[in-house]
Amino acid sequence: MVLKLYNTMSGKKEEFEILDISDPFKTEKSKKDWVGFYGCGPTVYWYQHIGNLRRYIFEDILYRALVFNGYNVKHIINVTDVGHLTSDQDEGEDKMEVSARKEKKSAQKIAKHYFNAFEKDLEKLNFKKPDVWAWATDHIKEQIELIKILEEKGYTYFTSDGIYFDTSKLDDYGKLANIDVEELEAGKRICMGEKRNKTDFALWKFSKEPGKRQQEWNPKEIVSGLSDSWAIGYPGWHIECSAMSSKYLGERFEIHTGGIDHIQVHHTNEIAQAESAYGKKPWVRYWLHSGHLRLKEGKLSKSEGGIITLSELQEKGYSPMEFKYLCLTTHYRKPLIFSFENLDASKNAYKRLKENLLTIQDENKNDGVINEGYLKKFQEAINDDLNLPEAIQVLWNLVRDEKAKGKYQTIKKMDEVFALGLLSSQGEESVPEEIQDMLKEREAARKEKDFEKADKLRDEIQARGYKIIDTSEGPKLRKI
Q1: Whole-number Å distance between alpha carbons of 294 and 11
Q2: Is the CA virtual torsion 19, 328, 359, 399 positive or negative?
Q3: 160 with 255: CB under 8 angstroms?
């Protein structure tokens, strides 16, 4: 069964294939059926909101779908802790420096704090950790070396504030986003400064006042043979991803992911510098991008005046799995309109699903029997560019099919991709001890055939907000 993925570069679904293992630009570790998979990670200057998390849910599903289809995957995600300015167009200050100054902490402490919060959110969502979290500040040498290659090949020029990539050297600049360079208007949204071309971008920024920034490096102390024009500074945002992805996955690899907001600038510039440096086209075989999560009122972002975090949803009584279920009901490439009404609907659907699963009466749930018919339909949905809404429907059809065999093991297999904790207690609130004691007392009354007392206890449990579900393994409690 062939896996098909929508490639942003071609604008269509394509059959997934591993690059030729004889390709000398693939590292030894990525040969022999390994899939190289790089995902753009967080800029750790603030908490990640639920819109950010939607993208990592998509990325996790993609990883799991590849594994489900029998591929070995080497997964790398970067952590941006330097160089991402407040504008994607090389304007403004470094977000890390701004946050550090505002909170009166070191940039390193800021980065670690917000990364740890981000990682905790991913754990709540059953996110499979990548093979490498690649921190930008740990790979300054690799970034300088890549810029040096570009300089030697004639793709760069110096200004008073840094080293820039000359996009006029490329005939196909902007091919990922179908950018018409001639139609871009300089001076409105793009600050030209000393740039030669509207689309040129910074590879290395010089510190305005060396010693004032928390994070800056003297490149000549790190890499030998640099020209005299190099000065103390820090890397641009785009260069980190090209340098780190190619370090771990080789100078060509299979998959690169990100949000649709990365297409126009960040990923376009990654392609320009990587293909210019390595002389290999395409640098990446498949580009996949997830859609935005939006509020009814507009974009969800810190810059727009507010965010919603996963912890805030939990404080309002929603579990991480209920939010994840909501994300899976819309195709990853489409915008997801977030509202608490929609989240309530997903919360109820997820709870109904879990309750239905408790009633599954497979006598031999551990015998390894799988319903091949339903599993095939599930894989067909997953392999159709990660059609999660269709896959969820296949799951519900199986749950409701009274004649279906092998339900337990089939659902367990499906959840290798969903990672919704369908057959576990994850995502459920702990039941208060006094409610559990009432349930035990009810069961004792039933054994003694004191049905009046048992009914009274059932009603009292329900009045406290819990429903009793009778299963083959005994009664279970679920919050109403």
Answers
A1: 23
A2: negative
A3: no
Q: Which helix (H) or strand (E) holds 114?
A: helix 107-124
Contact 42/48 with Cβ under 8 angstroms?
A: yes
Strand, coil or helix: 444: helix
Structure tokens at 137: 């500040």
Q: 49-103 pLDDT, tens per residue?
A: 999 999 999 999 999 999 999 999 999 999 999 999 988 778 889 999 999 999 9
β-pair partners for 273:
none
Instruction: Name the residue among 288, 296, 293, 373 with its Cα closest to residue 326.
Output: 293
Mean pLDDT of 278-296: 92
The DSSP result for 222-289, as a single string, is TSTT--TT--SEEE-HHHHHHHHHHHHHBSSEEEEEEEGGGIIIIIHHHHHHHHHHH--S-SEEEEEE
C-alpha pair distances (Å), 318 with each of 128, 311, 355, 369:
22, 9, 17, 34
Task: Work out the number of other CB atoms within 10 angstroms of the CB of residue 220.
Answer: 15
